[in-house]
Specification:
single chain, alpha/beta, six-stranded mixed β-sheet, four-stranded mixed β-sheet, 11 helices, globular, binds hexanoyl-coenzyme A, Enoyl-CoA_hyd/isom_CS, lyase, EC 4.2.1.17
Length: 261
């Protein structure tokens, strides 16, 4: 529950960055109900914490997450999963988080693991990362956005290929296809990710949250509506102290010290 120490994740901070490390190593971070509840609780707490400006979700070297917990799912009936909204019910918390969330992926990101990474704002991958939606091999289909976010990220051809064959794609292919923003050597994964996260934390949180909201709007609307949404937020930011600070700092050749971080 909300006030107990998490068991299947570890929660740490680095400066203003909140880090959640999935920690179920023997099961390759298979995502069960308890883990997803703990993850959601940790993210919501960071989102509400003024000391935090950005979040990172990561796993182990071998696995970001090998998917939803197949052992737990194996005996579920339709009645169980539909009535209780099983498996998926606590997966949507991450979508309500307003500060940026970066996925730092090494090893397997399969099924629900790939879907979890895609729910993050962007993915930085280690060179050993492997992405896939292997649900078809289990007689099911992706259930946490895989058939929706993957085609938006990589286009229909590759999404159909991955979802229908269940094959994995490596980090190079994932970067070429646009699923991940950067690929780095495994030993540099956290350094690179924290570098990006700490950089984001230096900016005005108001503009950071507006930027995230506006990019996400691109996937929910037509171009004219999206551009209008962006324009409204763009104009609104001229009402903030941080816009004055950011532009004054540039004009006077000094580093901006944003107030709202
Ligand atoms: C439960 C899992 C698991 C999973 C691995 N394990 N993935 N347990 N759920 N998704 C367990 C294995 O059973 C094993 O336990 C241990 O982790 C190590 O895994 P191995 O298979 O021995 O490792 P390896 O040979 O290196 O193979 C790694 C792997 C393979 C290729 C990732 O484990 C694999 O194919 N896993 C399943 C991937 C998958 O199908 N994911 C999609 C799930 S469906 P023991 O006890 O034997 O040591 C899904 C639906 C999403 O995600 C719905 C969202 C709501």
């Amino acid at each position: 529950s909300a006030n107990t120490t998490p068991e299947l994740i570890t929660v740490t901070t680095e400066g203003r960055v909140g880090i959640v490390t999935l920690n179920r190593p023997k099961q390759l971070n298979a995502l069960n109900d308890q883990l997803m509840t703990e993850l959601g609780t940790a993210l919501k707490a960071f989102d509400a914490d003024d000391a935090i400006g950005c979040m990172v979700i990561t796993g182990s070297e071998k696995a970001f997450a090998a998917g939803a917990d197949i052992g737990a799912m194996a005996t579920y009936s339709f009645t169980d999963v539909y009535k209780g909204d099983y498996i998926t019910r606590n997966w949507e918390t991450i979508r309500s988080v307003r500060k940026p969330v970066i996925a730092a992926v090494s090893g397997f990101a399969l099924g629900g693991g790939c879907e979890l990474a895609m729910m993050c704002d962007f993915i930085i991958a280690a060179d050993n990362a492997k992405f896939g939606q292997p649900e078809i091999k289990l007689g099911i289909i992706p259930g946490a956005g895989g058939t929706q976010r993957l085609p938006r990220a990589v286009g229909k051809a590759k999404a159909m290929d991955l979802v229908l064959t269940g094959r994995m794609m490596d980090a190079t292919e994932a970067e070429r296809a646009g699923l991940v923003s950067r690929v780095v050597p495994l030993e540099k994964l956290m350094e690179e990710t924290l570098g990006a996260a700490l950089m984001i934390c230096e900016y005005s949180l108001i503009s950071v949250m507006a930027a995230k909201e506006s990019v996400n709007r691109a996937f929910e609307s037509g171009l004219a509506d999206g551009v209008m949404f962006e324009r409204r937020l763009f104009h609104a930011l001229f009402a903030t102290e941080d816009q004055k600070e950011g532009m004054d700092a540039f004009v006077n050749k000094r580093k901006a010290a944003f107030k709202h971080r």
